[in-house]
Amino acid sequence: MPESATGSGMMSRVHRGWGIALACFLAYSVTVGGSQYSFGHFVGPLEAEFGWSRTEIGLSLSLVALGSFVSPFFGAMIDRHGARKIMAVSMLVFGLSYLARPIMNDIWHWYALGAIQSFAMVGGAMLPIGKLIGQWFPKNRGRILGITAMGNNFGGAAIQPAVALIISAYSWRIGYTAIGLFGLVVAIYILLVVKSPPVIAKGSIFENETKSPNYTLKEALSTRRFYAILVSVMCGSFTYSALLPQVSSHLINKGISEVSAAIALSLFATCGMAGKLIFGILADRYGSKISLIIDLVGQAVFAFLLIYAGAGVSIWFVVPFMGFFLGAFGALYQLIIMDSFGLDHFGSILGVISITNAISFFAGPIIAGQSFDITGSYGPAFAITAVIFVIGALALTLSGGDRWVNSE
Length: 408
Fold this sequence. Notes:
The structure is a single chain. This protein is an all-alpha fold. The protein has 20 helices and no strands. It has helices at 3-33, 39-50, 54-62, 64-69, 71-81, 84-99, 107-126, 128-136, 141-169, 172-193, 217-221, 224-236, 238-243, 247-253, 258-286, 288-306, 315-341, 346-354, 357-375, 379-397.
């Protein structure tokens, strides 16, 4: 093949790869930034309009656990057929689940739409993105996955304040409509851009130079590291259910103004972007295991300090660091699975590990809701979450050597 043709093919792959990275970035932005970061802004209006308690409202977050039970099915489908159609359809369903919320008028509608959203988040963002980035960017997947996972925080920094402004200026119904429309736009973009990578010729600059393992699901289940990762991912995912959705409500409850709380949450999200990039680079250089241990310990420290934010501890100190460590987890838990078990069966292995998220996504909002309803504060919930993070770090620390690639 002529050199110019080869170069043209490589450049085409580069352009396609970055287009796919953007699709992943946007999927994260809407599913996490549009739902988790913005959740607290809807609590007050829903409580006022329907008379639902904080526990009843927060229970919809627990329904995200339902998506965990279909994760193995979605993961196997992605391994077998690729991510494009599953991502696009899932994002379409996600958008529709939000467009339907303005017409709900009963608590069961709220729960039904939460359940639908949970399935859509699994297929739209939680499972396919790690595999896509691993396939298209094999040499520097840590930092690229960190960049694409910044979409979570970009959604918090951009979509969250926009939604807050819409709710303040118009209504919670218009806020949900805006999130739904964002979802539909991302679904169309995914359908147009996402595809599996071409076969990589040996010697190509895109060939993965690292010697990654390639475990089947059955082989992974027979290793000790699988269960260490399972425990750490389950513990770390409490950050999305027991902590993240409550940050703005916690700050407001501490006497922080809604404007300051929104600014603080945007800062929280922005620092999360830095955390993803820095920890992605650290994982490429020193390994994903040690990076994830440091991240979980950091989350534990600042989750505890968050209890006192606005009451003796500056929110402008605690909130940025909590965002930094929380943000990194979204990339690291996928990287540790890639590094440990390879890419060929990544979807299936991550799908099985994700079943344990049912525990965190179900229990986390209940812990937070009960904490507030009983004590009038989210402090006890944050303290419990900090302990859970430490357990996740210990599971990895006690499991063996520092770098797991081909370590067994």
